[in-house]
Amino acid sequence: MYIVLLGPPGAGKGTQASLISEKTGLVHISSGDIFRENLKNDTPLGLEAKGYMERGELVPDDLTIAMVKDRLSKSDCKQGALLDGFPRTPAQAAALSAMLAEWDKAVDLVPYISVPEEELIERLSGRWTSQTGRVYHVKYNPPKIAGRCDVDGSPLFQREDDKPETVKNRIKVYFQQTAPLIDYYKEQGLLVEIDGTQSIEEVGADLLAAIEQVK
Ligand code: ADP
Ligand code: AMP
After folding, report:
1. How far is CA 129 from CA 3, 29, 125, 134, 143, in A?
2. Residue-averaged pLDDT of the chain
3. ∠ CA 164-166-168, rounded to 5°
4. Does the pLDDT at position 133 exceed 90?
5. pLDDT band at 215 (very low <50, low <70, confident <90, very high)
6. Which residues, 6 or more positions from 33, have their beta carbon under 8 angstroms from its beta carbon?
7. Is 71 in the pocket of ligand 2 (CB under 6 A)?
8. 2-214 maps to which CATH number?
9. In terms of CB atoms within 10 Å, which of 49, 65, 107, 166 comes out highest?
10. Cross-strand partners of 29
11. pTM confidence score
12. Domain residue limits, the chain
């Protein structure tokens, strides 16, 4: 099953993707995590993506699509994947459909996690991330030991692009370039809206129920 998690930055896509991946065994693919890994390792892709990420802009479609296609073509994605942060433009959505069609697959479900804009800034400014990709929040989802990841005890860090000016730009970019995908997937009958203002557990339960429906 191929699931696309849609929603603005801070909606809870990464948080839920980790939980669902643990419960269903679906591989969690976060385009942002792959870019950050490339940045950390100074790869040519990381160097190309760096400026866009620092400004809170989208990395160009050609680079992003090639990167995700490469990841999705790996054997662990043959039975499905949980996409978090991709697609983010109509061109990326069309490319995803085309690559899946090449492999006789298709997008099965697009949960759209909706959260009002006012809440996103508070969520992103309190977000702490682990090198394992786990996401915490100082108030809403604190780690068991302050500053340490629950899974491997590694130190947590705040993302550079979670500073207020960059966050504002990322939200603007979301409304301009990604929000049109809500209608795109609605027209295909794939969209299920989930109330992202609920607790992490409640959002997770709604998502699992939506997945059960299409199994
Ligand atoms: P996204 O991947 O959509 O950008 P994250 O999963 O990183 O969002 O979540 C953004 C921040 O909001 C994190 O600090 C996370 O702990 C917190 N968060 C996620 N879901 C909820 C929720 N349902 N209620 C309150 N805070 C949440
Ligand atoms: P995220 O971790 O999803 O918040 O993404 C962090 C940053 O990585 C974004 O602000 C973009 O600069 C870049 N990025 C991640 N996914 C994409 C995508 N699908 N298209 C373009 N840029 C992306």
Report:
1. 23, 16, 12, 6, 10
2. 96
3. 70
4. no
5. confident
6. 14, 133
7. no
8. 3.40.50.300
9. 49
10. 83
11. 0.96
12. 2-214
Within 10 A of 151 (CB to CB), how many other CB atoms are there?
Answer: 13
Q: Compute CA distances 36 → 45, 60, 68, 160, whole Å.
A: 10, 15, 14, 11
Q: What is the DSSP letter of 193?
A: E
Please confirm, yes or no, whether 127 is among the known catalytic residues.
yes
Q: How far is the CA of 123 from the centre of ligand 1 (A)?
A: 6
Residue 130: per-residue pLDDT: 92
Mutate to test the pocket of ligand 2, among 18, 35, 99, 168 (most ligand atoms within 8 A of CB): 35
Q: Quick one: DSSP state of residue 144?
A: S
Preceding amide of 87 cis, omega within 30? yes
What DSSP assignment string belongs to 14-71? HHHHHHHHHHH-PPEEEHHHHHHHHHHTT-HHHHHHHHHHHHTPPPPHHHHHHHHHHH
The DSSP call for residue 161 is: G
CA 5 to CA 68: how far, in whole Å?
15
SS3 (DSSP) at 129: strand
